[in-house]
Amino acid sequence: MRQKEENLFLKFVKSLRPFEWAIIVIIFGFIGMFVWSFSQTTPKVAPELQAPKPETMVRLYEFWGQGCPHCAAAAPFLKDLDEEKKELDVHQYEVYYNPINQEKNKKVADVLGKEAGGVPFIVVGDQVINGFDDETGAGKEIRDRVEFCIANKCPDKAGEVLGFPKLSNTLFETESKQESTKYNNISVIEAKKLIQENQSNQDFVILDVRTPAEFAENKIDPKAVNIDVDSPDFVKEINKLDKNKNYLVYCRTGRRSAIASQTMTDNGFAKIQNMEGGTVEWFSSSQANPK
Asked: Taking the domains of the chain in order of start, what are their residue ranges?
């Protein structure tokens, strides 16, 4: 029976005339092109770098394009940053082949007063970083912004547009409530005013708790003294200071200075002012001049 079916098929093939063969080839050619085109336009959406983190205080949103070299350069940096920062949650959206993500990109850009265009289009808090070169360029800008938002609770406007639940920032809020009863958090503007008012006050100390290398690079005031909060001798060194004096404590973003301020109050210091925003905000201010 099978032999008979094969013979019938061969007879059919042999009976086909040249123009009929041409029609068959064209039909299969169109089918092949359709399959190829579909495979190319199917959205290639990158998965989340990891499951949402319960400690999330900051979300980073990246709108990227398949085949974009700058996006490819940003990928390992963002992955490492996401793994390094427990408070950070990274969300990625491919926009070259996904029209839904293109619309999301436009909505986020609109709410932030920006133009949706080039990729990668990276959002941290209410700030947009366009493009990526390396860790020392755009990478440093992204890292600084993430650390600033972890320390200072930036608004999550993009998350609101994209339908994410509001960030409770429980960790941040709990720490802030505890710290507020022991030391004062002040803004960069308030810190500048405080320094100006205490130029000749011998009982006023500006304490930089960054690393010695950071301190050597820049400082907010020539009179600032440096004790690295990450040094194993930090507690020993601060206990050499006069606990009755008034201290303005700062670091790069406000995270380490908050830790230092808490440690100092736990060790009996009564007058501590923690400068939120750190040197990142200080030197980004149009009125600030590195010293």
From this structure: 58-170, 182-284
